Each structure stands twice: as C-alpha cells, then as structure tokens.
Amino acid sequence: MDIWLQVAQAGDRSEIATLIQRSTNAWYQRHGLGAIFPAEAESCGLFVDVYQQLDAGYHWVARDEQGVICGSCFFHPRETHLGLGIMNVHPDYFGKGIASRLLAKAEELAGDLPVRLLSSALNLDSYSLYHRAGFTPYAIYQDMAIPVPAQGFTFPRLTQGRVRRAQLADRPAILQLERELLGIERQCDIDYFLNDTSGLWRVAVWEQDGRIGGYLASVAHPASRMLGPGCCYREEIALELLSWMLDHHHRGTTPVVLVPAQRSALSQVLLRWGDGFVNYILHR
Ligand SMILES: CC(C)(COP(=O)(O)OP(=O)(O)OC[C@H]1O[C@@H](n2cnc3c(N)ncnc32)[C@H](O)[C@@H]1OP(=O)(O)O)[C@@H](O)C(=O)NCCC(=O)NCCS
Question: I need a surface site. Which of 17, 81, 138, 227 has the fewest CB within 10 A?
Fold first, then answer.
C-alpha cells in the first residue's frame, strides 16, 4: 500500500477528529475499558485546534492512495526538545508501518534535539512502537481520577504561601521553574496557557514573600479534563496547587492528575482524595 506523509490542511479538521476518536477508542474498547472519547467525534477537534494555534505546520498526517487520512501525529518544536503527541493510526491500517513513518518524521524534524513524549504504560502497542525506535522511559507517572463535589473542594493549608491565579507577569518565574526543575524550555506553551481567553485553560501559581515556588496549568473540556503540566519545589506546594485547581476549575467533574510515581507521599494523599470523594458520591 502506498502511503505518503504531508502537513495537515485546514480542511482536514473533521476527518482527523474522527480518526483520533476512532483510533483511540478502538484501543480502549479492545482492552475492555470502554470508549475514552465518548462525546461526539467533533470534540476531538480540540486537539487539532489547540495544536494548530501552537504549532502551525507541525501536524503531520499519513494518506493512502485514495487520499484518505489513515494516520496523524502532532509535533511540538521547543527550545530544548521536540515534543510528540497523540499518535493515531486508523484501525483498518494498523501494522502497516504508518506510525513508524510518522516517528521517523519526528526524528528528522528534531535534528540534534531529543524527542520527548508521554505514553501510557498500559498500551503495549505504543510502548513497543517507541521502544523499537530507541526510546527509553525516564519518568513514570500514575494517573488518578479525582471526583470533585459540585459544591467545591476544601483542603487544609500546609504551607505559609498562597495559591492564586497566574498573571502574565509570572511568565519569567514559571519559565525559570521549568528550566530548574524539569530541565526543559517551552515558552510558547506557557504563553498559550497564560494568554488563554477561552476559559478552557487555567494557570495557578504558589507564592511566598513574592517568590514563585510552583505553578500548575489545567484544562477543562469534554475531550480532556486534566491537571497539568506543572512543577514545584515541594510536595506540600503540589497539594495546595492541586486542591486550588480542583476547587476553582473542576467542580462537579472528575479530572485526571498525573502523579510522579516516586512521589509516594503525594500519591497517598491523592488516593485518599479519590476514595473520599467516591464515598461522598455514594452517600448522595
Ligand atoms: C500504536 C499505533 C500508533 C501503532 O501504529 P501502527 O501504524 O500500527 O504501527 P507500525 O505498523 O508502524 O508498527 C511499528 C511497531 O510498533 C509495534 N506495534 C504496533 N502495533 C502493535 C501491536 N498491535 N502489538 C504489538 N506491537 C505493535 C511493533 O513493535 C511494530 O514493529 P514491527 O511491525 O516491526 O513489529 C496504533 O496501533 C494506534 O493508533 N493505536 C491506537 C491509538 C494509540 O494507542 N496511540 C498511541 C498513543 S501514544
């Protein structure tokens, strides 16, 4: 089968949204987990829109001889690395080397920079794809779903600092935190979060005596309800940022948080929050 790669065009949006939904749901359903994108396919257009604004010209698709889009992957060129996100192949085209071709394109675009991606440890198809291409895991996260009561979320203070909504003036401090704690730079992502006017995104910072010690971004959309990315100096700060965000951005929903697996104390508290809220819902 003849497959060729090209940059996605504006008119491809709905075909790509359908591909992302079908391809990702296919994996979840094959593993008895139910559809991960139960809303209509259109909701997956969110990814196309966001990355079109962030990285125009870096969304690549694979087409077959008839021009049908059978693969899609978003690339994110950043100061320190090339990010790779949301790799999808249409289920009718699995196992034909399409993902490998898209991955080779990422490596070509990255040049001398490393390629960075997040992949589910449950998904052995993609683990195998990336492993075969020479990728190695360097950090493990556990994802936790936390139901947030509609009337809000309260959590005792652990630090002398305070959490507040981030402002544009916080940009240099957030960039410095990411450089120092994560070793990466991605100015355009931080600018995107801070300049959002849609209300989908929110950013909070933790500060004490005028010094920023952590930040957390969050998205609330039918296709993606997540807390992150973010980073901070201590686990207490992480808990204050997370509880602020749950209360201010996710009331009455169940967002997902990715917790670094080596942060055991943090995981323990979040597991209690999850359990606590499950009990709360059952009592209603
Ligand atoms: C994972 C996925 C992108 C692979 O796409 P693909 O075009 O079928 O992959 P390729 O044909 O290029 O295969 C490349 C390598 O991936 C691995 N792989 C792909 N599918 C696999 C499967 N079902 N089982 C085991 N390994 C698999 C193999 O190592 C394969 O190399 P090989 O053919 O030499 O054995 C595709 O199955 C998919 O879209 N799945 C649903 C969405 C998803 O999980 N996306 C990844 C999220 S990060």
Answer: 138
User: What is the Å distance from ligand 1's center to 82 Cα?
Assistant: 21
- 85-117: pLDDT as tens digits: 899 999 999 999 999 999 999 999 999 999 999
Cis omega before residue 147 (within 30°)? no
Query: 76 C-alpha vs ligand 1 centroid, how far in Å?
Result: 21
- Tell me if 62 CB under 6 Å of ligand 1: no
Is the beta carbon of 80 within 6 A of some atom in ligand 1?
A: no
Q: Which CATH class is domain 4-138?
A: alpha beta
Give, to the nearest 10 degrees, the angle between helix 13-30 and helix 45-54. 120
* Residue 275 pLDDT grade (very low, low, confident, very high; cuts 50, 70, 90): low
Describe the strand order of the beta sheet including 82-89 as a list of residue ranges: 4-7, 59-63, 69-77, 82-89, 115-117
Ligand 1 centroid vs 21 CA: distance in angstroms? 16
pTM: 0.88
